[in-house]
Amino acid sequence: MNIKNTSSNKMSEFETQQAKFKAAKKSTLISVVVNTLLSIWQIIIGIFSHSSGLIADGIHTLSDLVADFVVLIANKKSHKKPDEDHPYGHFRYENGASLILGIILLVVGVGMVWSAIGKMLNPALIPEVHMIALVAALVALVAKEGLFRYMLYVAKKVNSNMLVANAWHARSDAASSLVVAVGIVGSLCGLRILDPIAALIVGTFVFRMGFKFTNQSMQDLMDKGADEETLQEIRTVLEGINELSGYHDLKTRKSGDFLLVDVHLELDGNMSITAGHDIAVNVRKKLMENPQILDVMTHLDPYDKNHKH
């Protein structure tokens, strides 16, 4: 039995989703502007300073623009109202976007590791560059690290896995700028091998983050349930409702960053339908106080102490 939401709960859910949508849109648009300016800056300076690393980093920055547009599209699509074909809404667009971002991180990580190994095997491939390239790399590093911290702050504030993934993509680009900066310093000091060693370490880190987000989004798309801590919170709420004789078949599944909950409620078999309905409404209301829960589906079962479901 699916109990209809109250107007206050609807308003709360709507306000939460709208706040999340606006925060995601604002942070992503800021990322687009910053990455566009940085990529142009890096490529131009890289050409004039003869730094292939800086040019490559500028091209790498362009990959962030692709990620940003993926997030913008998914963020818009995920907040479309439910329709006949998608009665539970479109929140899984966010899970799909997180999967794409995770794959981007994997590809970037593999590319960085591959490039680093190639340079370690042939140090002559590491170019000697001018000092202006170091200045450009440091400016890019500071800007990207600042962008990462801002985006991660927003992602945690609105509790969005998709935005967390995009923030860490920005960190991977900051790591790339760090690699370039270290490589330039090493080149100026005659220690060219520092560049590929740093690239290998950062590339491995980026690959690891990509694997984490790809795996998490795949699990969510396959109806992964809530973590044990959240499940215990739900159990505590149910066990705190005196009218219930018990409950069973508690199930949860992810939809974007929200949870859908199914549960069978055990009630006195002699209770009227109206009384049972009122209890179910109260159960749903209590569970929906958790902002992570999007919807609750309940089923009423007559309680028999001599028979366990």
Structure description:
The chain is mainly alpha-helical and 309 residues long. It is 69% helix and 10% strand. It has 8 helices and 3 strands, in the order αααααααββαβ. A 3-stranded mixed beta sheet has the order 1-2-3, with helices on one face. Helix 3 packs parallel to helix 5, helix 4 runs antiparallel to helix 5 (161-189) and helix 5 (161-189) packs antiparallel against helix 6. The longest helix has 43 residues, at 7-49. It is elongated. The two termini are 18 Å apart. Residues 2-11 have low confidence and may be disordered.
Keywords:
309 residues; mainly alpha; three-stranded mixed β-sheet; 3 strands; 69% helix
Give the gist of this structure.
This protein has 309 residues and is mostly helical. It has helices at residues 7-49, 52-78, 92-121, 131-158, 161-189, 194-221, 228-239, 273-287, and strands spanning 246-255, 258-268, 293-303.
What share of residues are in beta strands? 5-15%
Poorly predicted regions are: 2-11
Structural class by secondary-structure content: mainly alpha
Helix-strand topology string: HHHHHHHEEHE
| DSSP summary, beta strand count | 3
Biggest sheet layout: 3 strands, mixed
What percent of the residues sit in helical stretches (DSSP H or I)? Answer: 55-70%
Domain Cation efflux protein transmembrane: 29-222
Family: Belongs to the cation diffusion facilitator (CDF) transporter (TC 2.A.4) family. FieF subfamily.
Domain Cation efflux protein cytoplasmic: 227-303
InterPro entries: Cation_efflux, Cation_efflux_CTD, Cation_efflux_CTD_sf, Cation_efflux_TM, Cation_efflux_TMD_sf, CDF_Transporter
